[in-house]
Model the fold of this input.
Amino acid sequence: MSTYQELKGLKVKYLSSDTSGDRVKEGEVFYNSTDFNLKSFVASKAWSAGAPLLTARREIIGAGTQTAAVLASGKSGGSGAGTTYTGVTEEYNGSGFASSTAMGTARYGAQGCGTQTAGLIFAGYSSPPDTDHALTEEYNGSSWTESGDMNNARFLGSDGFGTQTAAVGAAGYMSPASGNVAKTEEYNGSSWANGNDFNTNRRQTAAFGLLTAGIMCGGTGASDLTESYDGTSWTEVGDLNTARFSLRGSGIQTAGLATGGGPPGTPASAVACESWDGTSWTNTGSLATGRSSAGTAGTSTATVCAGGLKAGPAITDATEEFHVTINTVTAGAWSSGGNLNTARNRIGGAGIQTAALAFGGSVSPGGGEPTVTNLSESYNGSSWSEGNNLGTSRYGVQGCGPQTAVLAVAGVSNPSAAAGGVKDTEEYDGTSWTATPDTANNFYLDGVAGIQTAAVVRSGAGGPPGPAGNYTEEYNGSSWSANPGTIGTARYAGSFIGTQTAAIYCGGEPPAPANFLSDTYDGSTFSTAPAMVIAFRRGGGAGTQTDALVYMPAPGTAPYNTQHYDGTSWVTNASIATLRNSISASGTSTAALGAGGGGSPNVQNATEEYTGATTTPNIKIITTS
Done:
């Protein structure tokens, strides 16, 4: 028996808000009884910002999907001095990048295709000595293995298209005697065979599809030519709307995307993006950062584009994601907040983004002995207000807890003393500070996790310049007790994030000036956790053991990346705007706060707020008149 829905279709839902549950899809119509409007969900095509690459570069090869991509090879500069050819490999999980094993042969201008766990790279160029490559390497999701060479060494060809066991390499530039070529080769998983030439010699084209159904477009000097491949021969089809070279492709023969590239006169500032439907090209959402020679991976409706050469010219680490969706995607990002009233660094922090506390620190502008302070300021989400001061002036102090129940632990009160680190502990009730029992050990730039009545402090240093301690103490709201748990590598100036029974300690120093190390704590012991993607020390941290955000790498290192940990791995996240270290940190992984800090200038009052990624439906009001 047929249902009403089968006979008549879906009813128009009568709702009090802009949602229709499991029927949220393009074209769904509903009535909002609160604002008296008939509405529908509408899909849009747009680019949104993503987390930056770890290594900024151009001439990158990408493979895989928007949420599981691998980007490898490239170069860091233009021609001549200062150019670095690389085999750097990074994986993207839809949120950020993590390092993987470098290619066997560093190069740029390579070609490639496949997936994140079955990728292929071939051809390319490296120097010294100046070499066109026929080399082929296969990627298994963790490492590269050399395979059979191409018949014709070349570089700056098409993207390449197909799979790891059925690929096509076409176009490119060979030694000066040959120049731009129309040569095509097919790969069967172990060796290459020559195929039929395409119609017009060129290099720096985009390509996508499969061995028996591919598309190649654009190329040398800015071309609009498009050719289709059926596994045997090439056929010219509809031209691009914008002639360009060094563009990138993604998708299949009947549904593709051509991204970026260099149009005439502006070779490194193209924002053009065109979609292919199997017959013709249509202009679609433009890139925010015009670029050529980027790395792309994905489909015609979901592509990631990272790195490349932008206007200037300059190498970029910027990442963007293309979406065809009924949702507006807003990437996580940092924005300016209200400044501290007093600039300082090595500050303690606690609370959440809209109700935070910053306390202690050094107000010295640099040089000589630091001037230690007991200042305490509270933040309401827009501005800082001075409140009652700490009982003990100190810098390198750390804290935890909500704004009305903060715990401040240790620090340095007398920098000139042989053992400058103190044991002082104070509690804040939202109005004033009260001294409580001391820690057993001296701590400076320690890590503190938990809340006022259940906290844990670890490592730290006895006072400038160290040495690093390797001890842990726990606080129950009235006294400290030693915990025998030690960390694998003694260090201080890291971030301790989480609770007394589930925390993660990130980065720190020594043995290196900044470390990639991270360790989890279960309330009694420490265990080695995955390495961070950027060396980290004296930065900020927020969140939980399995959802942690740390911001600011080692001082002087750009870009000023944020990193996120999901309980399994670390990836890059949106960069904080202002270089600094030893900031006051508070909040969560999706709503973090960083205030003050040192660096350049030596003390700062800047505040930045992090807002995590969001998606909101695109809703259109349907007019009936």
